[in-house]
Amino acid sequence: MKHPLTLAGSAILLTIAGIAFLGPWLYPHDHITQNHAAVLQPPSWEHWLGTSRLGEDLLAQTMRGLQKSLLIGLAVAVLSTAVAAIVGTLAGYYGGRVDRGLMWCVDMLLILPTFLVVAVMSPVLRGQSWLLLVVVIAMFQWTLASRIVRARAMSLRERGFVRAAEYMGARGPRVIRTHLIPNMAPLLIIDCTINVGVAVIAEAGLSYFGFGVRPPDVSLGTLIGIGSNSAITYPWVFLVPVAFLITTVMAVGLIGEGLRRTIDRESDKAALV
């Protein structure tokens, strides 16, 4: 049975995804049309969440920003979890020089100040596809998870079913693919779920400081950055994207926590048996 936290988080996240991807098809306004006769208007029947400083509909812009933030968060999570699984499993299973070499690379990335590196790279990112931003964020997000995967792989390689497969002639890649990765699936799923929230926050932070998604495209970070200048005088311009960002991260966090508790409970039952 799924944990209530997982169900609650999934329901919230599905609602947010529905607003982001189905909303633009149903809502009469788009995110780029400027109405100079309705600049910085408060929420009304015409513009449900108000308008921004150039007269764009804020709900339409937020839906567009949600799309971009969710896509970036999901892409970063999948990419960083895949890299963490590959690097951690290879290091943990083979050990020796492979382990030392890969962990040296991990340590080098861990000591680099992520924000400073991205800031230095920002001229390269300017004008490029947002997919390059995904690669840059993922490049620094897999390191800690790879160490956890490595420890788990080192534990699994001593288990009987792994030794039995090796005695029967299975080579390393086959053992990793058929025995180690499947047994680490719950750990990787939780890591991937948590990474979605971390990536959304990272993208929002980078875009807020001008290093991420750039106009005319929008994300939650760019909307928050633009709205922060009017946070006191026209609060809806700032609070609407902030509310969606917090709700998205909270939903992902609930899913991750629910999965963790479910897996811990199943592990406790297995240990008792």
User: Can you name the CATH architecture?
Assistant: Orthogonal Bundle
Number of domains: 1
Globally, the shape reads elongated
Instruction: Write down the CATH topology.
Output: MetI-like fold
Residue runs with pLDDT of under 50 for 5 or more positions: none
CATH superfamily: MetI-like
Pfam families: BPD_transp_1, OppC_N
Subcellular location: Cell inner membrane; Cell membrane
InterPro entries: BP-dependent_transpt_permease, MetI-like, MetI-like_sf, OppC_N
Family: Belongs to the binding-protein-dependent transport system permease family. OppBC subfamily.
Describe the structure.
With 273 residues, this protein is mostly helical. The protein has a single domain (4-271), classed as MetI-like fold, CATH 1.10.3720. The chain is 74% helix and 0% strand. The protein is built from twelve helices and no strands. Helix 1 packs across helix 3 (58-94), helix 3 packs parallel to helix 7 (143-156) and helix 10 runs antiparallel to helix 12 (235-272). The longest helix is centred in the last third of the chain and has 38 residues, at 235-272. It is elongated. Belongs to the binding-protein-dependent transport system permease family. OppBC subfamily. This is Oligopeptide transport system permease protein OppC. Keywords: Cell inner membrane, Cell membrane, Membrane, Peptide transport, Protein transport, Transmembrane, Transmembrane helix, Transport. Residues 66-256 form the ABC transmembrane type-1 domain. One of its GO terms (cellular component) is plasma membrane.
